[in-house]
Automatic annotation (TrEMBL):
Organism: Adineta steineri
Protein's UniProt name: Uncharacterized protein
Keywords, comma-separated and alphabetical: Cell membrane, Ion channel, Ion transport, Membrane, Signal, Transmembrane, Transmembrane helix, Transport
Source taxonomy: Eukaryota, Metazoa, Spiralia, Gnathifera, Rotifera
Domain Neurotransmitter-gated ion-channel transmembrane: 245-338
Pfam families the UniProt entry points to: Neur_chan_LBD, Neur_chan_memb
Length: 419
């Protein structure tokens, strides 16, 4: 009978509802008990301090890799650890407990900032081998939420100085739904201003500076707190120097070989000039495939235009030499024909030139010697012509002018515009 009485008393006792009292707090090592009491009556749909001041969220970034940086679609990719710290007084731990790492399954049970990246195009949370994020409950109700992300963000490149340019790519974040009356973002105050950069090695760029800023912008008639990170990168021009500048310069120098070729070899000189022009065109098309179709000239375009002008100038020079030589031959030929008409006893000059060998033998010694002199003069015209004065000037003028243009070009795009 007494046995039944004790069982009835035990089963009729009310269930133990966890509350913030001494039944659980002294046993600080019992984290399950502590967490159960913290989440009793917790409403994840309301932000902390709902009727009070806005929640301040501190952001800390650790960038582990940067790139590729694509000019064609004007974007860049980076891997980072994205960390947020905010205070939720409803999750305040007892004094004997601090910095508790809890399961990330609790993320679905608590309120957290709805942070998004304004200029991102795509991104994902790493899941190898498991979801790469963590949640820690710190002292005084502070929460730390960290996740490992890969973000592809837009970066409006200004390519007027390409490939000698400096690009600044922004990374902008804000709250999607909460305005400044609910959530305010701040960079973590430390020696890195909230951004830590692991030593990065980029293939085409050197990251030499970054800048953090904070501002308020208006979205849909509502003010939002915004954090921005500006990454300043200088392009490594080594690839374009080896694949663009040096080959284009060598093609220009190659076109100068025609200045040392016999002036009468017009076909050979034209072949060299045309070949250099076509080779430069192929080189330009290859380089332009790496940059978007922008409506303005880039720095490398100006260099290619300069090389084009020198190639066309060399072709025009050999054309001028050919026309001048042809003009001088015509004048010389007219003088020879005129002298021939005076020494042939009023005979037709054209008939004497077309005489066969048999008719030449029938001439008297005086006429034969006269005709032989005329033929010798005509043969001398077909011999190697002396160095033309145009070629002599071109051998000196073209290299000097090309060197001067290069000095002006590199001064403008390396020193002057970079300031």
């Amino acid at each position: 009978m007494w046995y039944l009485f004790f069982l009835t008393v035990i089963f009729l006792q009310p269930p133990n509802i966890y509350s913030l009292n001494e039944t659980c707090w002294p046993r600080a090592n019992n984290l399950t008990c502590v967490l159960n009491k913290l989440f009793f009556g917790y409403n994840k749909y309301l932000r902390p301090n709902q009727t009070g001041d806005p929640i301040r969220v501190q952001v800390y970034l650790m960038i582990t890799s940067l790139g590729p940086i694509a000019e064609l679609d004007m974007s860049y990719t980076m891997n980072l650890f994205f960390r947020q710290v905010w205070t939720d007084e409803r999750l305040t731990l007892p004094n004997k407990i601090s910095n508790v790492a809890v399961s990330t399954k609790l993320l679905s049970a608590i309120w957290k900032p709805d942070t998004y990246f304004i200029n991102s195009r795509s991104g994902f949370l790493h899941t190898t081998p498991t979801l790469n994020h963590l949640l820690r409950i710190l002292e005084n109700g502070r929460l730390l939420y960290s996740s490992r992300l890969t973000i592809k963000a837009s970066c409006s490149n200004f390519l007027r100085r390409f490939p000698l340019d400096i690009q600044t790519c922004p990374f902008i974040l804000s709250s999607y739904a909460y305005g400044t009356e609910d959530v305010i973002y701040d960079w973590k105050l430390d020696e890195n201003n909230g951004v830590e950069l692991v030593p990065l090695k980029l293939s085409q760029f050197d990251l030499f500076h970054y800048k953090t800023s904070k501002r308020i912008i208006q979205f849909n008639d509502r003010n939002h707190s915004v954090l921005q990170l500006d990454l300043s990168m200088r392009r490594n021009a080594g690839y374009y120097i080896l694949q663009g500048y040096i080959p284009a310069s060598l093609l220009v120098i190659l076109s100068w070989i025609s200045f040392w070729i016999n002036s009468d070899a017009t076909a050979d000189r034209v072949y060299i000039g045309v070949t250099c022009v076509l080779s430069l065109t192929t080189l330009i098309l290859d380089i332009r495939s790496y940059i978007p179709a922008v409506p303005y000239f880039t720095a490398i375009d100006y260099f290619f235009i300069m090389c084009y002008l020198f190639l066309f100038a060399s072709v025009i020079q050999l054309t001028a030499v050919h026309c001048h030589l042809d003009y001088r031959r015509t004048i010389r030929r007219k003088k020879v024909m005129k002298n021939l008409s005076k020494t042939s006893d009023r005979q037709n000059t054209s008939s004497k030139i077309s005489l066969s060998v048999q008719n030449i033998r029938q001439l008297n010694p005086t006429q034969r010697s006269t005709f032989a002199g005329v033929v010798q003069r005509l043969q001398n015209l077909q011999q190697k012509a002396p160095l033309h004065e145009f070629d002599r000037l071109a051998r000196i003028g073209f290299p000097l002018l090309f060197t001067l243009c290069n000095c002006i070009y590199w001064y403008i795009f390396v020193f002057y515009t970079s300031q």
